Amino acid sequence: SATIIDGKAVAQTLRHRVAQEVAALDRRPGLATILVGEDPASAIYVSNKRKLCVEAGMRDRHRLLSAQVSQAEVEDVIDELNLDPEVDGILLQLPLPKHLDAPSLIERIDPDKDVDGLTETNAGRLALGRPGLRPCTPSGVIQLLDSAAVHLEGAHAVVVGRSDLVGRPQAQLLLARDATVTVCHRHTRDLASHTRDADIVVAAAGVPKLIGAEHIKPGATVIDVGIHRTEGGLCGDVDFDAVAGIAGHITPVPGGVGPMTIATLLRNTLTAANLHNSSHRETRTNGSGPARDGV
Ligand code: NAD
């Protein structure tokens, strides 16, 4: 049966490495989180992000806004954080209450502080293969694949889902690693015919246990991005018990992709801080060398 990819352990190693690099800097990187309203799941996500940010030696800045906050008030908070030299990364926790225009708020974040990689600038940089900040969850998936030494070049990877947050950037990241990528979504006819041909399946459809044994080629790598709270506890988009008998590698839920998302957020905040430090040095020394080194 499949080798389980231990996302918790890989994430811990990554966070440890980030903490070591942070400790060697003369200025502490800062992460600002913005939480709107009191959605319990979002509140838990944000409090975990803040806790691990502090554990990694970074500065934690937090803005809790009421569920009734106006668009203009959120804009003001983003503007203030954009200008704050102690803030290297800005995370606007999604989803936002319906009365707010989420795309325009995301777009207001300075692309060089956009540690979720969701602005048009960073999405464009990814699509064009240029350096930039990459969305956390799909980059965490790539690191999990690397940790298990899964060969990407020339492999057939099938991504199930095409959201701005996960599926679409996942496909781009796999393409950038020379995989042959198929993207499936809710209009795909005969999902299994695609996934059964895949060496790697990344399931990000948001449908509990969508991927069963009949979707998987023996020995394939299966990465489960989905998270669902059910009466029987947490489950993913993959029917773990059915697929673990067929796959070569598989991620569990919980303990797979989830922990990597936060670890990658910290990595992105450090990357953004290095970018800000080097561009600051450049203005001081009147500019030599690449400002985007290391991104
Ligand atoms: P989303 O709802 O925005 O997008 C879902 C995508 O799946 C859409 O592109 C849709 O076309 C496709 N889809 C839906 N039903 C399908 C079906 N039957 N067959 C094929 N494709 C189908 O969701 P999202 O934000 O991309 O998140 C996906 C899942 O990942 C959710 O369960 C979410 O909770 C989880 N998630 C986990 C993390 C993490 O850190 N582990 C982060 C983000 C999202």
TrEMBL record:
Reaction equation(s) it catalyzes: (6R)-5,10-methenyltetrahydrofolate + H2O = (6R)-10-formyltetrahydrofolate + H(+); (6R)-5,10-methylene-5,6,7,8-tetrahydrofolate + NADP(+) = (6R)-5,10-methenyltetrahydrofolate + NADPH
Domain Tetrahydrofolate dehydrogenase/cyclohydrolase catalytic: 5-116
Region feature Disordered, mapped onto this chain: 276-295
Keyword Oxidoreductase attached: yes
Annotated residues for binding of NADP(+): G161, R162, S163, I227
Biological function: Catalyzes the oxidation of 5,10-methylenetetrahydrofolate to 5,10-methenyltetrahydrofolate and then the hydrolysis of 5,10-methenyltetrahydrofolate to 10-formyltetrahydrofolate.
Assembly mode: Homodimer.
Family note: Belongs to the tetrahydrofolate dehydrogenase/cyclohydrolase family.
Record-given protein name: Bifunctional protein FolD
Organism: Rhodococcus jostii
Gene it is expressed from: folD
